[in-house]
Design a protein that fits this description.
Structural class: alpha+beta
Order of helices and strands: HHHEEEEEHEEE
Helix content: 10-25%
Number of helices: 4
CATH class of the largest domain: Mainly Beta
CATH topology of the largest domain: Lipocalin
């Protein structure tokens, strides 16, 4: 039987991750309670030594499960009364140098919406991701019948959906605090903490 990976505290990493996910799942989330668990994971993390080893850990689809500031703060949509953000995803294609953020929205009277933010993406070093935002698509009524996040992205970028497509010109960075096969923790250049998991 394979021995479990153990954090410096002597506890299995799976236990630490489980406690962090339990904290995230609570209605009243407390960042102060999460920080020791995040630090414990950081101390255990064996950082990849090359971009070739780091890239596969980042690549693919992630679901945002916690953010310390509103996820749609850049667009101002989080501040609109009655509008609620549903599931939010980040899709990274390292080989193509592309990243998309996809957020499902709901509002009064059954209103549905979808926001897709497109950006260029590059690894600045073995910890830091640099992102150049290019476009925000805000689709009222959502996008009917999409089968996956990737399907939604492809259809939006092909011009489907009714709404606004606004050019964006801004940059940001995200430092990876921890990443493994199914959990990723990052810190944005504005101090925002992100916790994501594989959907």
């Amino acid at each position: 039987m394979e021995n479990p990976i153990v954090a410096p505290s002597g506890r299995p990493v799976s236990t630490v991750k489980g406690e962090l996910l339990d904290q995230v799942a609570q209605l009243e989330r407390n960042l102060a309670d999460m920080q020791p668990l995040i630090r414990e994971l950081q101390l255990n993390w064996c950082r990849p030594e090359t971009e070739e080893a780091f890239a596969p850990l980042l690549d693919g689809n992630w679901e945002l499960i916690y953010t310390s500031t509103p996820a749609l703060a850049r667009s101002g949509l989080d501040a609109l009364p009655g509008l609620q953000r549903g599931k939010t995803y980040q899709c990274i294609d390292v080989a193509a140098g592309r990243m998309r953020n996809v957020a499902e929205l709901s509002g009064p009277f059954g209103l549905a919406g979808l926001v897709v933010v497109s950006a260029g993406f590059e690894l600045e070093n073995l910890i830091r991701i640099r992102v150049a935002f290019e476009q925000t698509a805000i689709l009222w009524g959502g996008l009917a019948g999409y089968s996956s996040v990737q399907d939604a992205i492809e259809r939006v970028e092909a011009g489907e959906g009714v709404g606004l497509r606004l050019p964006v010109s801004s940059e940001g960075t995200v430092d990876t605090l921890y990443v493994d096969e199914d959990l990723r923790i990052g810190l944005g250049n504005r101090g925002t903490l992100f916790i994501l998991r594989r959907p």
